[in-house]
Amino acid sequence: MRNPLTVGAIAPSGPCLCRSMARAAGAAPGRRIVELGPGTGVMTRALIDAGVEAGDLLLVELDRSFAARLAGAYPGACVVRENACHLRRITRDHGWQGCDAIVSGLPLINFTGAVQLRILSGAFASLGPQGVFVQFTYGPFSPVAPAVLRRLGLTGTRTGWIVRNVPPAFVWTYRRAPGPSPL
Question: Is the pLDDT reported for residue 9 higher than 70?
Fold first, then answer.
């Protein structure tokens, strides 16, 4: 509640939302997944429960206390205390280019179009050709501005509605649109 622009929820995501996000990311053994804004690690736990090895997780968390907690709870994961706006550099520096999915707990809807553009352009520069970006939001509409989707040549699909979450949440999955990429 002290940081509404950086911490997107008043409570950790519920288990149904976490499982839905893991499913949308295709979480399974051998998948390399980047998590943006993992916070307390409840989504991280769902990814591991779905079969992703801790060593196949790159956790990008800006908050110092959350990052320290994640490093202690998931010692095999790569925890980076950094701003997601620098995702392209982070994945390059840590050898995570061509990853399979990016799962985001960031409150994207609260960010300006310029910040959304920076995060998503870094995300899709880091993902492999079939990679997906999975985001949740509390409203029924895409949390990514239409202008950002058009500029990056992305499509967004609402892939889940989780009523059993406080508050209820929607899962959105973003992919590169068919055809030449503007990236």
Answer: no
Place of tokens 């959350």: 66
The closest of 183, 112, 106 to 151, measured between CA atoms, is: 183
Whether the ω angle into residue 167 lies within 30 degrees of 0, i.e. cis, is yes
State the average pLDDT over residues 53-64: 98
Token representation of residue 88: 């392209």
Torsion angles phi and psi, residue 28, rounded to 5: -165, 165
In the three-class reduction of DSSP (H, G, I as helix; E, B as strand; rest coil), residue 123 is classed as: helix
| Residues 60, 83: Cα–Cα separation, whole Å | 7
Q: Is the pLDDT of residue 73 over 60?
A: yes
Q: Where are the beta strands (DSSP E) in the chain?
A: 33-36, 57-60, 78-80, 99-104, 127-137, 154-162, 169-176
Q: Dig out the tokens for 179 from the structure.
A: 């055809």
**CA–CA gap between residue 63 and residue 50 (Å, rounded):** 26
Tokens 């736990």 found at: 45
DSSP secondary structure string for all residues of 56-91:
GEEEE---HHHHHHHHHH-TTSEEE-S-GGGHHHHH
Non-local (6+) Cβ contacts of 2 within 8 A are: none
